[in-house]
Model the fold of this input.
Amino acid sequence: MALTTGFPLLDSLISEDKIVEFYSLDRELLTLFYHRVIAVSSPVQVVLVGERGGLDPNMVERFQRIYGVTGEIRVRRAFKVEDVSQVLKVVRGEAVIVDPYQHRKCYSNIVKYLRLDGSRKYIFSFMDREREGSLFGAHSAGSILKLSRTKGGFKVEIIKSVTLGRLEIPFATWEIFGRSESGLIRWII
Amino acid sequence: MEGYVVDILPGAGSATLVLNGFKTVEVKTTFPIYIETRDPDRVAQHPDVVYYEGEQWRYLDGREVTLYRFELRDLRAYYHLSKRYRVLNELPTVLSQTLFRLGALPFRKVSIRRGEVEIVKDELDLSELSIASVVTEDWFGPSPTGHKFRANLNGREMTGDLDDLSLRADVAECMGRACHKIRASVKLNMEEKRAPVSVKGLIEWSYVSRTPVRELMRATIGKALTTNEAWVAFKRRVIIPDVVPRVEKERNLEQLRSVDKGGLVLFPKLGCFNDVVQVDFSSLYPSIIIKYNISAETVDACHDVVTEIGHDLCYKEKGIVPEALEWLVNRKEYLKSVDPERAEAVKWILVASFGYLGYRNSKFGKIEAYELVTHFARKTLRNALEIASERGLEVIHGIVDSLMVKGRDVDDFVREVQERTGFKLKAEPMSWVVLTSRRDGNPYPMRYFGRTSDGVKMKGVIRDNMPNLVKDFLEDLRKLMSSASDCEELMTLRAEVMRLLRGYLERVISGEPRDYVMWVKGIPYVRGVRGFYDARNGFLGRDLEYYRQYLSRTVRVVYPWL
Amino acid sequence: MGRTQPSFTASVDSEIEKLSRIADRVGLPCLRQAVTEASKRVRYFQNASYDEMMSPQELVMLALISAVAEGFCSDGGVRS
Done:
């Protein structure tokens, strides 16, 4: 199964990019979002960077049930910064990478291994890319998307894209849980 | 000359061994540094390199490599070279390695004749050393700027004005100006101390890790713990690495769910229970590590035992961590009857060793090893619960490595659990135990108190950050409750508990300033009418209502029959 | 307490809170009481399931069913 956000519009906008980075200052929102992405992309490889936390298996399985997907999710964790590039070296093919730059170090090595085999990667970062924009492989990401909460839901802003200018797409809260887009199931299958 | 090695002071081409009784001896020595390099001659160009030798070492994964050991005239060269080259075997520390080579180890008795050192007594006998602890005090308690002192010299307590302080010791921990007023071969400044043990505990750590006590004081427990493991590696010529990048095994969600857990914790029944036995596994986690030979380099090295969680055990070679822990477990048992304070210090290292297996910067651990240990711990406790159920015992509480059971033939139960799990147990009868709930009504696994043969034992009740007044109250309440021999008698103490509480509520009004002090993150505070204030600025009054409510809340937690 | 996944107890509590919120919004008093009773019992269900593979949702549902099964309602609702 290929990497997908599960939102056909978003997917079509980033379809040309090898490395897509999603960031947000809203931890809860981004976490919910990437759990959904992992579920709808399954079977999929996931790399979790950091000492603690990062994945709620129950949440992923609930998303899988909602969308009728049953693929296996294979997880590897990189606890300290020295582990990150070693783990990325070993991961072949498409993958979801959670918070690879959190240590704010060794980014050139990390970026090198992210791009190593030329396959697609979705990166999720808990950082303010607009303030730390010039660092940490921003130049290597094909697209950078910002997620932020709005009154009725959330919005996705395309901050950087090879093909597009700045674009803003709103979503309602319940769209995360799949109550819209009847075409979604068709898309996944 | 003979004496206990208390410290080592490096010099140029020599080191001064400091012995007890302020004796010193200078011995000739160089200092070793291990560097991985393809060009040892280049390194040897440094003026302080006396000579070098190639040695065959291996990495933890078995890879053989030639390491060069350079002998340095001066320790400054060590730091200089560390910045330029890849230095390995930084633990045990260079001073520790130097002492080892000289034939002298910290806190062993040595004899030095014509520059030759020999250990004459390996066991640490503290009676031949003078050890002191000096704390300066202000009105609110210990303070580096206090004018009074409280000292303990070899078990003898002394107090007085700082100006009158005069004391001599081999090893002394001290605070503030007291450090200037005492004479000691090794002074340990308490303000810099990060280790959570007393001076005697530090000395024990120094003995166990063979590291000068000065080097341990500013470090966390990790240094003593890792050095103990490093010595095992050192003897095997296994390289002690700096940072070890690791790639863990890939898991699916099911596997992650089943291994990513801590210890088994049950939620206790609430209330008071008579005739309960607390059954504890002795050093369960270290015992598991030893029994199943769990270490970074042994897990999955071969497949002698295939476990349910996908990691395999290998018994071909004894693991570094199991070997390092085995002698500590034995030492702790031996010290219990010799010096409980030192036994406690060793217990600290044992407790931390498990956590270190899973720590990201651990040198000899890895996450798979950590997961194996928690898996076996949960399995062991589950087995014990099953056996309790088979024997018709009521399980009141269970938490990680300990159970509280009620029923008949508990001794047989203990025997059966030991036989079937292979781990040792200790049983402590309690005439009664009380398990209370949190404010939201939920049972609270970490808090209980019960009466043992040594009086009432309280767990999770007294917190460090409580006001002194409340701590004193809890202490008096504890003594009062010790008089009850069962739950029914405990409930009849109601009137006396009320009397005690009333006495303390009055003390809130007329107490000493020190009563109101509470320590939060190393700073003394008092709650005044306008909020909390730093006690170091002086006593500026107290908020009566706050302390009254604190007492009332506390008594309701501990004595729910009010 | 896991390193990566949230603690089981925290997940259970979060499920209970979610059910409480929804029960409040729906406004049926018996349901609300049943959820409250379930939250009191759920710890003991956690204990009993220590060696089974149960998700927080399954556990909370079981606790809720047990509350309903014992007719836990004093507001004139149907008692079994």
